[in-house]
Amino acid sequence: MAVENILHGVANVMDPAILSLMILGILIGLIMGSIPGMTATMTVAVLLSFTFTMEPANGMMLLLGIYGGAVYAGSIPAILIRTPGTPSAAATIFDGYPLSQNGEAGRAIRMATVASFVGGFISVLALMFFSPLIADAALRFRSPEFFALALLGLTVIASVSGDSITKGMISGLLGMLVATVGIDPLTGYQRFTFGTPELLTGVEFIAVMIGLFGIAEGLRKYAQGIGAEENKINQEITGVLPSLSDLKSIAPISIGSGVIGSFIGAIPGAGGDIASFITYNEATRWLKDTVPKFGEGNIRGVAAAESGNNASTGGALIPTFTLGIPGDSVSAILIGALLVHNVNPGPELYQEEAGLLYTIFVGFLLIYVFILIFGLLGANYWARLINIPENFVWPVIFVLCAIGAIALRGNVFDVWVMLAAGGLGFLMRLRGYPLAPMVLGLILAPIAEENLRRSLALSDGSPEIFLTSPIALLVILLSVATIAVPAIRALRE
To answer: How far apart are CA 399 and CA 82, in angstroms?
Structure first.
C-alpha cells in the first residue's frame, strides 16, 4: 500500500502546475531567506492567503518550496557577510565566514548546499517511514527534557568562545541577561522594562542578531577604512561541483547531523536554531584535533550546522501530520493552510488523505533536489558578490538589515534595538569578546529558564525530577561530559 501511495505521489508531483509552483516557491524562499531578518515563517505567512484558491497539493508545494528555500538560503549571508539570513543559520557563521575571509566563499556555499540537501533529504525520509515512532518519542519531552536540551545547547559556548573561555562566558551571560527582559513567563511580573511598553514582550532576538553580526561587521569595515585595498579578498572561483575530497570529508558529519536534526525538529517548539547549534556542538565533540580547527574555517562545521538546520524542516512536519501538533512556527501555518481545505492533520490523515500526504512527501524530497541544483549552480555567483566594491555593498546591507528588523513585528523600536546591538557588537569585537555565545544565550536562556522553573514547581523544588527522567538525565550527563572532558584533557596536558 505504501508503494502504491508513493507512486501516486510521484505521478501527482510530475504535474507541470505543481512543479512550477514548487520551483516558484523555492526561488521566493531563496530570495527572502538571504535577506537578514526575512524569516521563513514570515514569508510563508505572507503568501499563505495565495494558496486558499488552489488545490491542497498545489498550495502545499508552494509553501514547502518557500520553507525549504528560505531555511537553506539563510546560510548565504551568514557565509558572505557574517549575518545569518534566518535565525537557524547563526551556527553557520562560525566556520562559514572564516572560509569566506580566506577566499573560499564558493566552496563554503557548495558545502552548505550539499549538507542542506543531505539533512533535508534524511528528514523527509524519516517523515515518510518513521513519523509515528519519532512523534511518539518526541512527545515524551516535558519540562525536564526541554531544560536538559537547552542546557546541552548552552554547552556550545565552550566551543565558540575562541581563545578565551572567560570572555566567551561573559558574552553568553550577557545574552542570557538580555533574554530576561520582558514579562516573567511564570509569574507575569515585569523584568527590566524600565517603563518602556515595547519591552513588555521582550527584546526581539532576531533584531539583536542582525545588529550583532550585520551592523557590527559593517561598522568594523568602516572603522578599517571602507574600500581599503587590504580589505579586498580574492575569491577562488572553481567549477560547479564540489571536490570529491570535500564530499568525503563532510559525508559522515552531514548524515549524523541530519539524523539528530530530524529528531530535534520533531520535538514541538525546538526548531532549527536549536538543531543547528546542537549538531554543531556534537561535531566539535566527535571530531577532535581537526585542521583547521572548528571556528577557523572548517567545512565540516558548515556541514554540521546546515545539515542539522535543514533536517529540522522535515522533522517539524512529523508531529504536524501525525498528531496535529506543530513542530515549529512554519508548520503551525501549514496546519492553517490544510484546515482551510478541510484537511485535518492527525492520525486519520494517513488513512483519509493518503494521496495528498504522499504527494507532499515526494514533493518535499524533490524540493531538496532542486535546492541542491540551484545552490550548486549559484554558489560561484553568490561568491562573486563579495567582489563588488564595499562602498556600494555595505550601504545596501544596512538598508536590508533595517528592513529585516522592522518587518519582524512592524515595529520601529526593533530598528533601535538592532542599532544598539550593532554598537555593542562592534565594541565587543574591539575588546576580543566573541559574539556567538551571546546569541546562544539569547536563544536558549528563555527555554532553559522557563522549563527549569516549571520542572522545579512540579517537583516542589526537588531536583530529583531530573534524575527520574532517563532522557533528561542522559542529556544532562552528556552536557557535563561536553564541558568536563576538554577541561580534564587540558589539565593533563
So the answer is: 16
